[in-house]
Hints:
eleven-stranded mixed β-sheet, 14 strands
Amino acid sequence: MSEKQEKVIKFKPKRKGAVAGGILVAILIFLIFFFTGFKIEEIEVTGNKHYSAEQIKNFVLENGYINNTVLLMLKNKIHPVKEIPFVAKIEVEYMNVHKISITVYEKAMAGCVEYMNEYVYFDQDGYVLEISPDKLEDSPCIEGMSFASMELHEKLPIDDENRFRIILKLTQLIQKYEIPIESVRFTSDNEIVLAHEKIRIELGDGSNLEEQMVDLKQILAGISGKKGVLDMKDFDTASGTASFKLDEDADKKKPDSGSEEKTDSGETGGETSEESTSENDTEGE
């Protein structure tokens, strides 16, 4: 080899630019796959009662929503759903690449009382869960009570312990037997009166609540759509009958509109039979 040839330096072609370009292409392909392959196509909502599925979705998806199952999971891990009235917790689960599941755990409302133009909701032990201006349709409201103060997560400040026990037992039974009751109130004689649509339900002093409430839903089904007073003060648990008196102007077409009915909640499936009686006959029954 000559001296001239020895002085020639050979350079290898630069490949850094090609490598960087390949990496960028790979990242771009990954991002396209990530945002298209994990697109949210289905959201399943379970456990909701007070809120609709759409409302729950809005709670979870608000504030910087990204239509991607993985990113939504990460977002809810870092920034969980904000506190929602009547909801104890919300869980967001990844089901598959296109589906997420939202499980709602609602607070166990037993009833409510009115306080300073708001509704105070309490659980089965009498602890205040929420204070809200909104009235829930499926939560019976205890009327005619006044309070000096009210604290969240504290027990209802009811001085009369006996009335407090009755309220808790009554709301527990209403919830247990799924009875559609709108309101509960106490008369000046400390007797309990319930309201269901246009029906006034008189329970007496509350000494026989379990027997009265176990049949009440079936009895109400038998007099559905009517207006009047359902007297269960002397409810006969053996025969399962209660006295129902139609309101005087509830049905002008009936000549015996003021008659009393015997409402059967036993084996007859809640059917009613009407009897036209005089006042003396009614008292005798």
